[in-house]
Design brief:
By secondary structure, the protein is an all-beta fold. The protein has one domain. The protein is built from no helices and 17 strands. Strands 2, 5, 7, 8, 9, 10, 11 and 15 form an 8-stranded antiparallel sheet that branches. Strands 1, 3, 4, 6, 12, 16 and 17 form a 7-stranded antiparallel sheet that branches.
Length: 293
């Protein structure tokens, strides 16, 4: 008999493990694409799919924004984004009591977040007696997260915890270039970069163009469920005793997105972002097993 992580607080049960092909599952896909601005932009989603015979989840998201402003006084902008969430419900019968649930997932997808063109921005023009200002910005991001919840269909209630979600490899960069003159001969610059390429830390950052592969295990202890933790300390506990006569579903979710935007830059500048987990040989995500102990 094998037990999931955190099993110490649970009365042992025989472990039941499911692997592909999965039967009786129900999948729901929500998706969104958007474009904005006076310049050229695009957002696209393809290959959104759940394959129960293999346990694979696939999807490709892309966004692009191209510049068209004429610095220093142009205000052209463009942004393109795409995002999707795939929820898959797995039916499960349990005996009464506390249980450990473990969902193992593997992944293979490519993250791209890139810029073209020189990212310098024209300085604000000093005009005596007048405040002047010029701004340029560009952003690109792509990433994914996944995990699961336990759903009690009999009582219409969900249970999730601090160990049930995963932040996958991602890339995110924002670049800002702002300048102003106060009309008295003094001009200032503000230049900053945020995200994976900046001074701030984002979990699981990888370079643009990386093909990310790996394996994750997420878990839930219904008898001693930590709903919120920080630096290894749990701040909120919840106990949920399962009832053998209730109808339960393990609901696995996958969310991914790509976003690109540009402001104040002329033509030949662009921001592009994509997350490819479903084409060109990239297999996306696979629910390798679900175990309940």
């Amino acid at each position: 008999m094998a037990l999931s992580p955190g099993a110490g607080a649970v009365t042992p049960h025989a472990t039941v493990t499911h692997t592909a092909p999965y039967t009786g599952t129900h999948a729901s896909i929500s998706k969104s694409t958007s474009t904005y601005g006076s310049c050229t932009a695009s957002g696209k989603l393809t290959s959104l799919k759940w394959v129960p015979t293999t346990g694979n989840l696939t999807g490709v998201a892309s966004g692009k924004g191209s510049g068209c402003a004429t610095p220093p006084f142009g205000d052209g902008s463009a942004s393109g984004s795409a995002s999707a969430t795939i929820d898959v419900a797995f039916p499960w019968h349990v005996t009464s009591g506390g249980h450990n649930i473990t969902v193992d997932t593997s992944y293979m997808y490519k993250v791209t977040a890139a810029f073209t063109g020189h990212l310098g921005c024209k300085a604000a023009v000093n005009v005596p007696g007048h405040y002047t200002y010029n701004s340029c910005s560009i952003s690109a991001s792509a990433g994914a997260s996944w995990g699961f919840e336990l759903y009690d269909a009999t009582n219409n209630s969900y249970l999730s915890g601090s160990h049930t979600s995963v932040t996958g490899p991602q890339n995110y960069t924002d670049v800002y270039n702002d300048s102003s003159c106060n009309g008295l001969g003094t001009c200032t610059w503000y230049n900053s970069t945020y995200g994976c390429s900046g001074l701030y830390y984002y979990a699981n950052c990888v370079p643009s163009g990386t093909t990310a592969t790996g394996f994750n295990s997420s878990w839930l202890n219904t008898s001693a469920n930590c709903q919120y933790s920080s630096l290894g300390h749990c701040y909120s506990w919840y106990n949920w005793t399962l009832v053998g006569t209730d109808s339960y579903w393990v609901v696995v979710y996958l969310s991914f997105s790509a976003y690109a935007s540009i402001y104040g830059y002329a033509a030949a500048h662009s921001a592009t972002a994509s997350l490819n987990g479903g084409s060109l040989g990239l297999t996306g995500w696979k629910v390798t097993s679900i175990a309940v102990a």
